Amino acid sequence: MLMSNTSRAAKLRFLPNGFRVLSPGDHVLCAVSGEAIPLDDLKYWSAERQEAYASAELATQALRS
C-alpha cells in the first residue's frame, strides 16, 4: 500500500545548493512566519541555520537578526 505524504511536514537537511529529504512529507514550515511551504515551491533557506523561508523578504529578515 502506498502511503501519502499529504499534510505532513518533511524533515530536510539544507545544503548550500539544495536539500536532502531526511523524512518524507509535502511541506516544511517557514522559520519566520510559520507558513507551510510546499516542497515544490521551496526556494529560500539557510544551510548555516538549517531554516526554510517562504519568501526572499522573510529570508532577509531572518538573516538580519
Automatic annotation (TrEMBL):
InterPro entries to which the protein is assigned, alphabetical: DUF2093
Name the record gives this protein: DUF2093 domain-containing protein
Annotated source species: Stakelama marina
